[in-house]
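Bumping my old thread because nobody answered last time. Still need a sequence for this structure:
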């Protein structure tokens, strides 16, 4: 084949090398705009997995690269006068120029043609090419020419950064955070060769402008950074090699993903690779890793399908399908890390103590979890667990340190013995709204299972407030008595506390129970629906009537009456359901609130009625008992609420007396498109907790003790609500504690005889024996 790689970075060079190794008869050219030894930036970071992959494909190149590597295990963090260090993180770095020189030499040795100082403006300059690899960077001219084919989605991120270097020696990957009169600056520092380190300085757009950095030349910008980071530089200077940049040399990071990575120009197949196809923020250092792994996978597909012209379409199809998955995974982690640095000042640096700040930094991408930190640096993690436990009233003992999820939590007069919640889950099993023996067993078994708090399913404040005929209610004394029986059982037989979630289905009411058709209208005996506006949940669903003022008063009073019954029944906490498209949620979302009166329009107007209900309930709910509010923190639909809107609502509810925000999302609009993933809703709890200053509950795709410990230890939430795992395992908390080796957690006295056997079975299974 005739192959042309446009762009002489790691992607194009390595692909040329691998394809020449696969079949030396290929005619391969790598075309680069710069001179042979020109490059910009300083060092790049590799992962061990990428190196293992490179060893399998080209041991010669990988051996040469490894000889030039600088390896380090430690991460050091400087903030608020503290210097903290942890080990076991295993980074390798190499100078970008050195890496390119190694790849250039290997390519020439194998017979790849290297063409320098040629600016390529079009793929059509190579009419004889069978395959054109566009690896010409994030500002790819080839991608720009075929925008409709490649469907690029690029978003410039809000922070500013400048890529510098220093000759000051560093023996750890170092993060230095400094606060100026206009905001926080952070430095990402790592050694890439003897006597040289990359030194990236990052800050917010606001701080960048306030300091006048936009008006400075490079020299002045560098002098500014030397002054901010004078302590860690210890008299050493910062330098730039970005001679091609005008002005201050500060950049904004372009977040890029393409809808498609391949095209046909009528003569040649064109494929994107590296930064031309996707970017990953430097916060996790994966840009070069992705570029090299693109090259490996494209070569691998030629090896599988055949390295011929006829195989190109099948190869490109398989390449894109496979790489898209891995790139999405890396980009998701990079996005988490990037967003952490974008808000680090206001959200974390100003609010968290240095110990917790460091934990948050280490787990910012959500790829490194609590137990993973234990594997990396057990001493550091156990020291942090001890610090966290003592901060939360757990005295130090010779036993294993209490992990974060099992530390107590106090709010108003409520004390929880741990931070795990059985999330509200609809059982659709009530009779005329009355909880029955099923509910007693359901809640009772989960209370015995070790959770610190369990919530009822959404309990409806009137017959017309129900989602289905099987929903629980609290509009009469019989229902209150049935609930009191459950509350008394929980209090009498467990350490758990129990809360009630009050709600009104609104436009999502009068539907079948879940197993007969989720959200489908009842075939008969429907009741009238009310909502903020006449917007049905399903296109063919029952249309609700917009609430009148009289109806708003009536429903508010129904919430108040239910709250009084809940207090009399002995519930420990009350949650107001303002999420998932139900009645109060329908007022909050612009998708469902189309009103033109004082209850529609602005955020303050849309929140007006839910706040009226909240204040009325708070007035009758016992002062010593807390109240939480469940919010849909993202509608996941165009024109709907975003996390910024949820932040505004949380502030309003906090001002009205809320103690906790339960951070869920979605289910407001039937055609929503959530972006699922592990802990995918936790960022909402993190944002509200640390920007509003209110305790939060994280919920959604939390399924292991490792998840809960990571969330709570990092200060992303104060409590973790576990839903489906509690359906599968009522004793989830006890079992998860045993899985991570915590033996001091108390089991119900009736079940203690099973505790040691369960723990022994886990130990045998871990050791490779048969449990």
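Sorry it took so long. Here it is:
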């Amino acid at each position: 084949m005739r192959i042309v790689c446009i762009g002489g970075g790691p992607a194009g060079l390595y692909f040329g090398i691998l394809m020449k190794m696969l079949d030396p008869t290929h005619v391969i050219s790598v075309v680069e705009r710069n001179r042979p030894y020109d490059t910009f930036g300083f060092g790049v970071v590799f992962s061990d997995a990428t190196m293992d992959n490179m060893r399998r494909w080209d041991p010669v190149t990988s051996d040469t690269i490894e000889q030039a590597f600088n390896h380090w295990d430690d991460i050091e963090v400087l903030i608020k006068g503290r210097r903290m260090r942890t080990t076991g993180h295993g980074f390798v770095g190499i100078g970008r120029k050195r890496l390119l020189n190694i790849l250039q030499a290997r390519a020439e040795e194998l017979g790849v043609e290297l063409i320098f100082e040629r600016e390529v403006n079009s793929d059509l300059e190579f009419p004889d090419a069978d395959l054109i690899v566009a690896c010409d960077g994030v500002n790819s001219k080839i991608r720009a020419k075929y925008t409709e084919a490649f469907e690029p989605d690029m978003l410039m991120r809000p922070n500013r950064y400048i890529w510098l270097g220093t000759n000051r020696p560093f023996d750890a990957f170092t993060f230095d955070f400094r606060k100026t009169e206009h905001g926080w600056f952070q430095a990402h520092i790592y050694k890439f060769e003897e006597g040289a380190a990359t030194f990236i300085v990052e800050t917010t757009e606001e701080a960048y402008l306030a300091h006048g950095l936009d008006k400075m030349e490079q020299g002045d910008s560098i002098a500014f950074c030397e002054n901010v980071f004078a302590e860690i530089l210890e008299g050493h200077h910062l330098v730039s090699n970005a001679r091609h940049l005008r002005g201050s040399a500060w950049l904004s990071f372009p977040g890029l993903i393409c809808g498609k990575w391949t095209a046909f120009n009528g003569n040649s197949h064109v494929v994107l690779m590296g930064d031309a196809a996707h970017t990953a923020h430097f916060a996790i250092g994966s840009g070069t890793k992705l570029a090299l792994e693109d090259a490996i996978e494209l070569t691998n597909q030629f090896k599988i399908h055949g390295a011929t012209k006829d195989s190109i379409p099948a190869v490109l199809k398989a390449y894109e399908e496979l790489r898209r998955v891995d790139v999405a995974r890396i980009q998701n982690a990079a996005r988490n890390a990037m967003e952490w640095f974008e808000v680090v000042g206001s959200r974390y640096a100003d609010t968290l103590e240095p110990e917790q700040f460091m934990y948050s930094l280490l787990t910012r991408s959500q790829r490194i979890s609590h137990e993973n930190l234990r594997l990396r640096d057990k001493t550091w993690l156990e020291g942090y667990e001890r610090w966290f436990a003592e901060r939360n009233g757990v005295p130090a003992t010779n036993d294993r340190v209490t992990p974060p999820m099992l530390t107590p939590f106090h709010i108003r007069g409520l004390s929880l013995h741990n931070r795990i919640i059985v999330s509200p889950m609809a059982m659709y099993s009530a009779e005329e709204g009355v909880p029955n023996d099923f509910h007693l067993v359901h809640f009772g078994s989960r209370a015995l299972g070790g959770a610190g708090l369990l919530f009822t399913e959404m309990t409806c404040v009137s017959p017309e407030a129900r989602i289905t005929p099987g929903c629980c209610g609290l509009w009469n004394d019989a229902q209150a008595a049935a609930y009191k029986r459950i509350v008394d059982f929980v209090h009498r037989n467990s350490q758990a506390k129990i809360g009630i979630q009050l709600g009104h289905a609104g436009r999502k009411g009068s539907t079948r129970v879940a197993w007969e058709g989720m959200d489908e209208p009842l075939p008969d005996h429907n009741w009238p629906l009310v909502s903020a506006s006449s917007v049905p949940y399903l296109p063919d669903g029952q249309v609700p009537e917009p609430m009148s003022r009289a109806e708003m008063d009536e429903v508010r009073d129904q919430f108040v009456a239910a709250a009084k019954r809940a207090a009399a029944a002995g519930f420990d906490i009350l949650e107001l359901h303002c999420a998932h498209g139900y009645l109060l949620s329908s007022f909050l979302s612009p998708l469902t609130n189309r009103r033109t009166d004082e209850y529609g329009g602005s955020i303050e107007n849309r929140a007006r009625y839910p706040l009226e209900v909240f204040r009325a309930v708070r007035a009758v709910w016992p002062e010593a008992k807390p109240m939480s509010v469940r919010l849909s923190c993202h509608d996941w639909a165009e024109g709907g609420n975003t996390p910024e809107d949820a932040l505004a609502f949380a502030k309003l509810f906090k001002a009205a007396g809320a103690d906790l925000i339960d951070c869920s999302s979605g289910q407001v609009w039937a055609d929503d498109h959530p972006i699922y993933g592990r802990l995918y809703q936790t960022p909402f709890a993190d944002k509200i907790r640390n920007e509003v200053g209110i305790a939060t509950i994280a919920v959604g795709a939390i399924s292991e003790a490792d998840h809960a410990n990571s969330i709570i230890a990092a200060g992303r939430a104060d409590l973790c609500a576990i839903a489906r795992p509690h359906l599968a395992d009522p004793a989830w908390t006890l079992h998860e504690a045993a899985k991570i080796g915590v033996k001091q957690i108390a089991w119900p006295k009736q079940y203690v005889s099973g505790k040691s056997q369960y723990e022994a079975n886990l130990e045998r299974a871990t050791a490779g024996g048969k449990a």
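The CA atoms of residues 434 and 479 lie 5 Å apart. Let me know if any region looks off to you.
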